[in-house]
Specification:
The complex is a heterotrimer of chains A (58), B (242) and C (218). Chain A has one helix and no strands. Chain A is mainly α and 58 residues long. Chain A is rod-shaped, with a radius of gyration of 22 Å. The chains are: A mainly alpha (58), B mainly alpha (242), C mainly alpha (218).
């Protein structure tokens, strides 16, 4: 390893698990948000197409 | 030109759509730079060793955990006073983000505390008040889930948010008072944050900026989804009537 | 408003369980704790203030969903809303009735149960005082929670989740008073803070409860 700052020493597990846990939670939040956004958007498009109204504002 | 024009969902959708085109890449860049810099290019500290790197997650998450509630409070007040739907939906959108951030702060704090304090959890005033804040988030989210009519839900959660804010502050002072008699070493976290060396300061600032952008982006995206969901409900209701 | 109060009290007595239920629950919790913790007097004496307060809090919580639920089911609440009483008055009277049926019996029974918990002698008057000062706040805060969840089918669990975090300051100061009283320390500050929370909650929360009630009866 060329980068000396990446040698985590005896706290390796601590640092890595903290980063893993935090990033997992953030990714979870993003995925949940994205999935729900996609579902709602698709349903809205479908209903709007069925009702023959104009598309929503964007 | 007043800020209230964004209360119009159409204008809000257009503006937020344009904003997001900038915000998403900005968030990605800031968070990546802040966290990679913090993780890979900061030296170990003499007392804490490499665990100091956790600060780049812990501090921004803790700041957002509190400030998200503050934002919800303002949005709730706007809803109660001026009845702008976007405001109520923004408060709803912010709650899960705030809860997640509070949880991240608690978890990273516990992981950091294990080698540093020798325990995963101490009933330190700060930790305790964060746990209580998390409970407030849970109650707020549960109330949104439980009520079917969206306007009633917005009203009731707004009232809960106001009352909850007062009691959260009361709890903060109560907890401070409660632990004074037990042990002194609680100012440990405070002391260390006051003198942060430059090597940690810059990546920390970038990371805080990244988390802030992340929060704004997520609130906008989630509010847009909520607005679409409301429109969907309205269209479906009209369909049933016809 | 007095009529409303007496009506609530009469209903609680006649329906049965109004007075007894919370009290019985309080007794059971206090009996169960030594069974779980072990019979050493020293340990029990140490945790007695906290256990007694937590038990009182849970006993209070148990009867919260009855505050509005019955009246909501049979339509009394809608009638009350059209009566010439401000909703703030209704919720205040409801909270008072809840306190008389639940809080007051707890205050009276607490010294007896404190015996079971081995509470040190000097703690008794302070236990009674702290409960006397603190339980009204529990009733007022609980009424707010009940007003939020009045129309909901499965409101009970949600009610606990909403109300328990709001109970934190009262619990902390209440238990602190008893702990300091039992140890013979100065306790002016927590007593005043406890009284302050109760007074503030009783003065301001009825407005929030009334707002929630108005929304729910809309």
């Amino acid at each position: 390893m060329t980068n000396p700052d990446l040698v985590l020493g005896k706290y390796e597990v601590t640092v890595l698990s903290a980063y893993a846990a935090a990033l997992a939670l953030i990714v979870f939040l993003v995925v949940v948000t994205w999935l729900r956004g996609r579902v709602v958007r698709r349903q809205l498009d479908e209903v709007e197409a069925r009702q023959g109204r104009g598309k929503h504002a964007d | 030109m007043s800020i209230w024009k964004y209360a119009n969902p159409v204008i809000f959708m257009q503006t937020s759509g344009r904003l997001l085109r900038w915000l998403v890449p900005l968030t990605a860049v800031l968070m990546a730079v802040g966290l990679v810099w913090g993780f890979a290019f900061t030296p170990p500290e003499e007392n804490q060793g490499s665990t100091v790197k956790i600060i780049f997650l812990h501090v921004p998450a803790a700041m957002l955990g509190i400030n998200a509630w503050l934002m919800m409070l303002v949005a709730s007040l706007v809803w109660l006073v001026r009845r702008h739907h976007v405001s109520a939906l923004a408060a709803k959108a912010a709650a899960p983000i705030g809860a997640t951030m509070t949880l991240i702060a608690l978890i990273t704090g516990a992981i950091w505390g294990e080698p540093m304090w020798g325990t995963w959890w101490a009933w330190d005033p700060r930790l305790t008040s964060f746990l209580i804040l998390f409970l407030f988030y849970l109650g707020y989210l549960a109330l949104w889930e439980a009520i079917e009519d969206p306007d009633t839900a917005a009203d009731l959660t707004s009232v809960l948010c106001l009352v909850g804010s007062v009691f959260a502050i009361l709890s903060r002072y109560a907890v401070n008072f409660w632990n004074q008699g037990l042990h002194q070493g609680a100012s440990l976290t405070l002391m260390q944050k006051q003198h942060v060396a430059d090597a940690y300061w810059y990546p920390l600032m970038i990371s805080i900026g990244g988390f802030l952008c992340f929060f704004v982006t997520m609130v906008l995206v989630r509010t847009r989804t909520e607005i679409r969901a409301r429109r969907l409900q309205a269209l479906l209701a009209r369909e049933r009537m016809a | 408003m007095i009529a409303l109060l007496t009506r609530d009290l009469r209903l609680a007595v006649r329906a049965g369980g109004g007075f007894g239920l919370g009290l019985g629950f309080f007794l059971v919790v206090v009996v169960l704790v030594p069974l779980g913790v072990g019979p050493e007097g020293g340990t029990l004496a140490k945790i007695a203030p906290g256990i007694l307060w937590v038990a009182a809090l849970l006993a209070c919580l148990l009867s919260l969903d009855r505050i509005f639920a019955l009246d909501h089911e049979d339509g009394t609440l809608d009638l009350l809303a059209t009566a010439p009483i401000p909703p703030e008055g209704i919720v205040s009277m409801k909270a008072l009735a809840h306190w008389i049926t639940t809080g007051l019996p707890l205050v009276i029974a607490a010294p007896v149960l404190a015996l079971l918990m081995n509470l040190p002698g000097p703690g008794y008057p302070w236990l009674v005082l702290s409960l006397l000062l603190g339980t009204p706040a529990l009733s007022v805060i609980g009424t707010f929670g009940a007003a939020l969840t009045v129309g909901l089918k499965r409101g009970g669990l949600l009610l606990s989740l909403l109300v328990l975090p709001l109970y934190v300051p009262t619990l902390i100061f209440g238990a602190e008073v008893v702990k300091r009283g039992a140890a013979g320390q100065a306790l002016g500050v927590p007593v005043l803070l406890l009284a302050g929370i109760t007074a503030g909650a009783a003065a301001l929360l009825p407005f929030a409860s009334a707002a929630a009630l108005r929304v729910n009866l809309r």
